[in-house]
Amino acid sequence: MKITVFGASGGTGGHVVAQAREAGHDVTAVVRAPNGRDAVANVMDPDSIAPVIAGADAVVTAIGTRGRGPTTVQTDSTRSIVTAMRAAGVRRLVVVSNSGMVVDDQDGPASRYLVKPILRRVLAHPWADMAAMEEVVRSSGLDWTITRPPRLTNGPRTAEFRTATGTNLRGGNTISRADLAASIVACLEDPGTIGQSIAIGY
């Protein structure tokens, strides 16, 4: 499979690139600044990213935001990627969001009434950006999957994670970036994840 990865210089994106290549996929890693190895493109410009998407079987975006201030980085970059994918006829898209902004019946009382309300205030701006990004994905008409990890760590790849489709994962409070990447690579070849949000955690 030919895969284009945006956010390839980040913690999760770097693991996606490495694991996808390890699995035998042809990966184009897209970064913002030249490093002599990867493709450079302005992800906010569909024309700029058209060459790195052309001919791909799937696209992954692990672009994140930094800081807690107002931002539209994920929404704007994803909208640009969707536009370029439509123009190129590329359909498979996997994006990284988060499970913290979602409250459902899989959340325990402490999470629902204490932890998440606090985080919703602290992370109001980046979470608003992620929520808007998800709307862009869901309305894209593409074969999308939204992955929703909890708190990310720099722990090792264990393959011992759990997933839940369409709901939060009860008790899944952390996940390593390496295991999140493993889940993303698995989603790319699993048609059962198309049109679904997938929560992941330990």
TrEMBL record:
<dbReference type="InterPro" id="IPR036291">
    <property type="entry name" value="NAD(P)-bd_dom_sf"/>
</dbReference>
<dbReference type="Pfam" id="PF13460">
    <property type="entry name" value="NAD_binding_10"/>
</dbReference>
<feature type="domain" description="NAD(P)-binding">
    <location>
        <begin position="7"/>
        <end position="191"/>
    </location>
</feature>
<protein>
    <submittedName>
        <fullName>Putative NADH-flavin reductase</fullName>
    </submittedName>
</protein>
<dbReference type="InterPro" id="IPR016040">
    <property type="entry name" value="NAD(P)-bd_dom"/>
</dbReference>
